[in-house]
Amino acid sequence: VRLVGAWGRSLTRALALGGEAQITELLIAFFFFFFFFPLILGSKDLVVKAQVLAGGRGKGTFEGGLKGGVKIVFSPEEAKEISSKMIGKKLFTKQTGEKGRICNQVFICERRYPRREYYFAITMERSFQGPVLIGSSHGGVNIEDVAAETPDAIIKEPIDIVEGIKKEQAVRLAQKMGFPPNLVDEAADNMIKIYNLFMKYDATMVEINPMVEDASGVVMCMDAKINFDSNAFYRQQKIFDMQDWTQEDERDKDAAKADLNYIGLDGNIGCLVNGAGLAMATMDIIKLHGGTPANFLDVGGGATVHQVTEAFKLITSDKKVLAILVNIFGGIMRCDVIAQGIIMAVKDLDLKIPIVVRLQGTRVDDAKALITASGLKILACDDLDEAAKMVVKLSEIVTLAKQAQVDVKFQLPI
C-alpha cells in the first residue's frame, strides 16, 4: 500500500494495527483510537481487513469460526470483537488450503462506495516477451473465475519493454474496460504510474482488484497485490527486508537461507533434483507409478555439499516423508558433490527412511565409488523409470508398516 501510494495513486485512507504488540494492548489501543478514526480517516464507517498473504479473504473462515476476513464495523465494541477473532488466528481460504495463514495484523480503512469496479494488473507474459497490461470490467471478484466463465471480458495490452508504456495504450485499455469518458484520462494516469512502479521495483505482478470509480467520481485503487522477482534481491533489498516470514512455511525460510528452490506438497515421497524441468519430470514419473511427491526441490546447477545436506534437512523435516528419491543429471552439477552431500546428510541426520539415488553425468563414477565406500545402505539405480518404481514401492511398504504399527528397518543392497 505504501508503495502504491508513494507513486501518487488514489487510495483508501487506512491504518495498520498488530505486529509485535500483545493482543490485549493492541485491542486497548484499537478501542481508544476508534474514537479518533473519523478524524484521521474522514469516515464513520470503517472496514477491518485481515492481513494475510493470500486471496479470497472475504469468503475465508478463521479458526474459531469467524466467517470472512473483511468486516464492516460501526462501533468500538464491534471493532474490538472482530479484531480479537482475527489477530493471532489462522485464516483459511481457497488459496491457503488446509494450512491456513496466521493473521498478525488488521488493516483499518475507510469504507468507500464505488459506482463500478474494475480489474487491472500488470504481469510478465512470455508469449509477448515482456510486460502486459490486463484489464476487465469485472472487478472485485476472482479473476480466475472470470477467465474461465467469460474470457472475452479480459483485455490484454502488450508493452514494449524497451520503449515503455505509452499514454495511448493506457487510454485504449481504459476505454475498453468501460471507464466513463470523463474518467478515461485519470484511469490511464493510474495505469502509467503503476507500470512505472512495476518496472522500478522489479515486480513480476502488480494487481489492483478492484480499481474503482468512486461515488464522488474519482478513480481509486481499493486493494493491491504485488509480487517481486527474487532474482532482483541485490537491487531491491529494502523491499525483500519487508517480507513477513510469519506468513511463510518455516521450511520456505530455511530454503531461502540455503539458496534452494523448495515448495512443499502433500505427498510422502521426498524429491531432491537439480534443475526445475527435471524436478517437474521427476514428480510426474512418481505420480505415473502411483506415488505422490512431498515436495519440489531444485538444488540448482552449482550446489555445494552444505546445500545438499540442507536440502535433506528440509525434506526430512516434513514428517509425511516416507522415502526419498534423488535424481541428478550432472552437467554443471557434479555428481560426486551430490554424493558427498547425501553421505553427510545420512550420517548427520541418522536417516532411517529408504533413499533411492539415480545419478548420471559429470563424475558419476566417482559419486558411485563414494557411496559404495561409505558403507551406507542406499539404493542406487541408473534408470529413472526403475528408480521411480522403487521409491514408490518403498513408500508403500513404509505406509503399510505404519498402519500395522510395525517397526521396519531397511537393509538395502548398494
Supply the key terms.
single chain, 414 residues, alpha+beta, Dna Ligase, domain 1, D-amino Acid Aminotransferase, Chain A, domain 1, Rossmann fold, 3 domains, six-stranded antiparallel β-sheet, four-stranded antiparallel β-sheet, 19 strands, globular
Write the layout of secondary structure elements.
Layout (H helix, E strand, L loop, with lengths): L1 H5 L7 E5 L4 H12 L2 H5 L4 E6 L9 E2 L7 E4 L2 H11 L3 E3 L8 E2 L2 E6 L3 E12 L4 E7 L6 H7 L4 E5 L8 H11 L6 H17 L2 E12 L4 E3 L2 E5 L8 H4 L9 H8 L3 E4 L4 E5 L2 H13 L6 E4 L6 H13 L5 E8 L4 H15 L5 E7 L2 H11 L4 E2 L3 H20 L11
Parallel strand pairs: 15-17, 17-18, 18-19
Antiparallel strand pairs: 1-7, 2-4, 2-7, 3-5, 5-6, 8-9, 8-11, 9-10, 11-12, 11-13, 14-16
Structural notes for this entry:
Helix content is 37%, strand content 25%. The chain folds into three domains: 12-110, 2-Layer Sandwich (Dna Ligase, domain 1), CATH 3.30.1490; 114-238, D-amino Acid Aminotransferase, Chain A, domain 1 (2-Layer Sandwich), CATH 3.30.470.20; 249-403, Rossmann fold, CATH 3.40.50.261. The protein is built from 14 helices and 19 strands. The chain is α+β, with helices and mostly antiparallel strands and 414 residues long. The termini are far apart. Strands 8, 9, 10, 11, 12 and 13 form a six-stranded antiparallel sheet that branches. A four-stranded antiparallel sheet has the order 1-7-2-4, covered by helices on one side. Strands 15-17-18-19 form a four-stranded parallel sheet, sandwiched between helices.
